[in-house]
Amino acid sequence: MKVENQYIIHFKGLKEGVHDFNFVIDKPFFEFYEQLEVPDGHVEANIELSKKTTFMELAVALTGEMQVPCDRCLEYFTLPVSYQGHLVVRFSETEKEPDEEVIFIQPEEYALDLRHYLYECLSLSIPIRKVHPDQANGEPGCDPDMLRKLDEYLLSE
User: Fold this and answer.
1) Which residue, 6, 77, 5, 64, is CA-closest to 38?
2) Cα dist. 143→37, 46, 67, 150 in Å?
3) Which of 4, 57, 77, 157 has the lowest CB atom count within 10 Å?
4) The pTM of the whole model exceeds 0.90
5) Quick one: 129 exposed, middle or buried, by C-beta within 10 A (0-12, 13-18, 19+)?
6) What is the DSSP letter of 14?
7) Among 59, 49, 60, 46, which residue's Cα sits nearest to residue 12?
8) How far apart are CA 154 and CA 157, in angstroms?
9) At 101, is the pLDDT very low, low, confident or very high (cuts 50, 70, 90)?
10) What phi and psi, each to the nearest 5 degrees, are found at residue 17?
11) Which long-range contacts (CB under 8 A, 24 or more apart) does 40-45 make?
12) What's the CA gap between 65 and 77, in Å, rounded?
């Protein structure tokens, strides 16, 4: 199944109330959003949709892990992902600019594509500085050869 079709909730036939949806975010998603600089990962997205007459509320929970490049040694390491988010979907005949937690869709819409929202959530889950976690003995988890090279260049300045 294409990435474009995997993260869609068809809400039109749902009754008012709470509905649960689960999605898996893995390699094809990360390849589609290459700007994340995450070549692989496995993240579970649990969406609790509360459908009301005039709007919907979504509670989003992401858990799993992603492979990210270390900013110090450039090798990839596993970064745990844990994200909680909230999104409100409002129906509106006029086009309105979405903000961080509210989006607007036309009343005749029947499905909600969460692909871009999930991308944004994952982007927020990646820290600004990504470095291997230290080992149990307190040593850096980075590639020792690269750390030696870095030390050589720092000492030569």
Assistant:
1) 77
2) 19, 35, 15, 11
3) 157
4) no
5) exposed
6) P
7) 49
8) 6
9) confident
10) 135, -165
11) 40/66, 40/67, 41/65, 41/66, 41/67, 41/81, 43/81, 43/122, 45/7, 45/114, 45/118
12) 10
Residues in the chain: 157
Residue ranges per domain, the chain?
3-156
Among candidates 26, 20, 116, which has minimal Cα distance to 60?
Answer: 20
For residue 95, pLDDT over 80 is answered with no
Nearest Cα residue to 73 out of 145, 156, 154: 145
Helix or strand run (H / E) with residue 149: helix 144-156
More confident residue, 40 or 101: 40
- Selection from 55, 44, 123, 119 nearest residue 87 by Cα: 55
- The whole-number average pLDDT for the span 62-88 is 94
CB-based burial of residue 16 (10 Å sphere; 0-12 exposed, 13-18 middle, 19+ buried)? exposed
Give the 3-state DSSP-derived string for 96-121, with helices as H, strands as E and coil as C: CCCCCCEEEECCCCCEEECHHHHHHH
